Amino acid sequence: MVFYNNRYATFATYWKFEVILNKIKNYNNTKKETNKIEEIEREEIEKEEVEKEEIARAVISGPNAVCPGSSASFTSSVWGSGYQWVASTNLSIANNTANPVSVSFTGSGTTAWVKVEDPYGGKVEQKELWIGKVNVTSISGPSSTPNLQYADFYANIPSGAIVNSTDYQWILNPQLNNNLYGSNTYHLEIAFYTAGSYQVVCRAYNSCGWGEYTVMGVDVY
């Protein structure tokens, strides 16, 4: 009877050990599965963060203008499966799933845009465009100014027009011995050394070429 009790006690102990061992195995398996799930979730989160950073840095490269009668090419720095180009109604896209893309002017107006959308219709990046050349609409500055003084003049372009900061040309007619500073920017400074009547002339440049000259008269006394 004592032997039976000892054997029963040994069996009970073994059974308890097996139960505990199985619990440990199940715990370890569950922990491994949990760790695997967490690892996959971390990878997905990291992937989403990378995609968000890429979209945040997205740039559409290409000209700032589309010239009537010709096409312009644009490239998105972010592209993937399901991405597409969308444009304003006055532009025609050759192939909206190609990158780079070719765009031409087919409507009316002076402004336009192209943008990239992700597979869910979200805007990745948009580029504002001007149609054709940019004409300087007016020149701001004094119509009369003292001799032996500096005078400042500014080129005004239409709202929505895009011109690089150094794509201007200024002319002082006649120039004589007067000095011009900043003659390729939107801001011109003139040091007048000779009294008389002058014409301050300006035009702007973009990828479609030089716009028309705009003239302002100035009297130096």
Give the number of domains: 3
Q: Encode the helix/strand succession as letters.
A: HEEEEEEEEEEEEEEEEE
Instruction: Please identify the structural class as seen in this structure.
Output: alpha+beta
The best one-word shape is: elongated
Secondary structure: number of strands: 17
Short description:
With about 220 residues, the chain is of the alpha+beta class. It is built from one helix and 17 strands.
Can you walk through the features of this model?
The chain is of the alpha+beta class and 221 residues long. It has three domains: 1-55; 60-131, Immunoglobulin-like (Sandwich), CATH 2.60.40; 138-220, Immunoglobulins (Immunoglobulin-like, Sandwich). It is 25% helix and 38% strand. The chain is built from one helix and 17 strands. The chain has one helix at residues 2-56, and strands at residues 60-61, 65-66, 71-76, 84-87, 91-93, 101-105, 111-117, 123-131, 138-140, 144-145, 150-156, 168-173, 179-181, 187-191, 196-206, 209-210, 214-220. The strands form four sheets. Strands 10, 12, 15, 16 and 17 form a five-stranded mixed β-sheet that branches. A four-stranded antiparallel β-sheet has the order 1-3-6-5, with no helix packed on it. A hairpin with a 7-residue loop joins strand 5 and strand 6 (101-105). The longest helix is centred in the N-terminal third of the chain and has 55 residues, at 2-56. It is elongated and about 120 Å long. The chain starts with a helix and ends with a strand.
